[in-house]
Specification:
255 residues, Transglutaminase domain-containing protein, Papain-like_cys_pep_sf, Transglutaminase-like, 8 helices
Length: 255
């Protein structure tokens, strides 16, 4: 069972009827947006620490490590929170931490864009085993992509190499943002036998079975949320943010 009462009003209708833009039509950009406010000093500080890396890819990996270390993961539901605010708080949701990486990328002149994915709410059941009736039926995920070497690189392919020997289970303290540092995250799938599987060594993880709909690509996450709304309605966000915004995934109760 998943809740539809908590979803943003009209969001399901907008998502179902919206045309999907082809990936080749979405060029992304390096400009600042209300969410990706990369002119803020805190974003610029991280950008200054990574800009000297040998390649743009290494700069993004270094920025990911900084954000993973300095921004504590929580279950915040405010997807449109400014990156500067997330960095000042020192805590953020998976979406907010990915936005921080996008902002740093833009600050070092790497173009970014996002892919909008509607993910089945059941994907998050392992994190909320006693709150399943309150989990939204669908969760809107802004999945970042970075323009590296003339091609678009999804955040799930940001790191390569041997993994830590375990697959991503979406429970415990590890979030999607953290997981990409040790395993490839794929929402597209391959052959039917590969759908919703994770390699035994943790080297790759196909989560395509959880995708309800692909909303296409957008120049930035602001545009995605303008078009499709956030996962939760405003009332639900206002009521739950004080608790979820401080609840660390590694704990059973809010911090």
């Amino acid at each position: 069972m998943t809740s539809r009462l908590l979803m943003a009003y009209g969001a399901r209708d907008r998502r179902a009827g919206a045309p999907v833009r082809g990936a080749d039509d979405v060029r992304g950009s390096t400009r600042a947006t209300p969410v990706l406010d990369h002119d803020d000093p805190l974003v610029r500080t991280i950008a200054g620490r990574v800009v000297s890396e040998a390649t743009p890819l290494e700069a993004l990996r270094a920025a990911h490590r900084i954000i993973a270390r300095d921004v504590r993961p929580v279950y915040s539901v405010e997807d449109r929170r400014r990156v500067s605010r997330t960095l000042r708080l020192g805590r953020g949701s998976c979406s907010q931490r990915m936005a921080a990486l996008e902002a740093v990328a833009r600050a070092v002149r790497v173009r970014t864009r996002v892919r909008g994915l509607l993910v089945d709410g059941a994907f998050w059941y392992p994190r909320f085993p006693r709150l399943k009736p309150f989990v939204p039926a669908q969760v809107l995920l802004a999945w970042p992509e970075f323009r590296i070497g003339g091609a678009w690189l999804p955040i799930g392919e940001l790191f390569t190499g041997p993994a830590a020997g375990r697959h991503y289970a979406n429970d415990g303290g590890e979030t999607l943002f953290d997981a990409v540092a040790r395993t490839g995250i794929d929402w597209d799938g391959g052959t039917p036998a590969e759908v919703n599987t994770c390699a035994a060594d943790g080297g790759s993880c196909d989560l395509s079975a959880h995708v309800v709909a692909d909303l296409g690509h957008f120049d930035d996450r602001d545009t995605l949320f303008d078009r499709h709304g956030q996962t939760l309605c405003r009332t639900a966000r206002t009521l739950t943010e004080p608790v979820l915004g401080r609840w660390t995934p590694a704990t059973r109760t809010p911090a």
